């Protein structure tokens, strides 16, 4: 359900009203979902379930909901459109139980509505976002965390990130030979699972003009190019490093301009996400690569500024649902 004070419950209600969420199950709070259904006026009702499998028996125009365990009893008192620790705690509880369901084989994929990182922190959750929390929950007891990467995708562009939620100063230090090579391996495996037999991976540089031969920084020479060479030796069709300010235009796929690449690996969060989001958040989908289960989400946040108004657009959530269905087949 995501953050109960954000637009998550509203876009879920709208997605079910369109029929796009048929076969999905909402893991969240009944009170928050009833509030969203009343707000959006979608003409759908709520069905409280005892088991996840009961979702398949729900009639049309019905939102099947499994009440998540451990939610704050006063969750509905958390003000809509504001950061609140109760909403952060509820979101974390939903994520934890969702992972339990997929790992038990009771669900085939997880689609997460937006959470707010400050609300998670206010609730004492030690993870900056979904990706890091899912990574920890996916680890086997006593085993290291599985390497995961964030991909943002729409119909025109796919971007995979080497670093994600950290300061830019830390992110630059986190761009290592090992991190770049591991990202290329994860991106290649994921793209092959999507049906691409030999995915063409463009690697964006870190510095302006990809370092201009070392004039504007040497990370391309010392780190990125050697990692690309190692990936190519493993049979991965990676190339670069390319100038970050032009590679996304080359990779963009449209009816009049077939993309030169299937996806782009970018070194930092904003380098990779700005181009995809600029094309429109309506169809963007966030996919976590490297997990032992499918996880997608919309490519926007909690939108506190419009939460509670009924104006939230469910398009990105619907796209995330469709991609989760495709990837979990």
In short:
With 329 residues, the chain is of the alpha/beta class. It contains 11 helices and 11 strands. The protein has helices at residues 8-18, 30-40, 85-103, 117-122, 130-138, 168-174, 177-193, 219-233, 244-251, 269-278, 315-327; strands at residues 26-28, 45-48, 62-67, 109-111, 149-153, 158-161, 201-204, 238-242, 263-266, 285-289, 294-298.
Written description of the protein model:
The longest helix is centred in the first third of the chain and has 19 residues, at 85-103. The chain has eleven helices and eleven strands. Helix content is 38%, strand content 15%. It has helices at residues 8-18, 30-40, 85-103, 117-122, 130-138, 168-174, 177-193, 219-233, 244-251, 269-278, 315-327; strands spanning 26-28, 45-48, 62-67, 109-111, 149-153, 158-161, 201-204, 238-242, 263-266, 285-289, 294-298.
Beta-strand content estimate: 5-15%
- Judging from the principal axes of the Cα atoms, what is the shape? elongated
Q: Taking all residues together, what is the mean pLDDT?
A: 93
CATH topology of the largest domain, by name, is Isopropylmalate Dehydrogenase
- Low-pLDDT runs: none
Annotated CATH homologous superfamily of the largest domain: Isopropylmalate Dehydrogenase
Total tally of structural domains:
2
Separation, N- and C-terminal Cα atoms: 23 Å
What is the number of helices? Answer: 11
Fraction of residues in helix: 25-40%
Level-2 CATH architecture of the largest domain: 3-Layer(aba) Sandwich
- The H/E string reads HEHEEHEHHEEHHEHEHEHEEH
**Helix-strand makeup class:** alpha/beta
Question: How can the largest sheet be summarized?
Answer: 8 strands, mixed
State the total count of DSSP E strands: 11
User: Can you tell me the CATH class of the largest domain?
Assistant: Alpha Beta
> From the alpha-carbon coordinates, what is the Rg to the nearest angstrom?
20 Å
Strand order of the largest sheet: 4-11-10-5-6-9-7-8
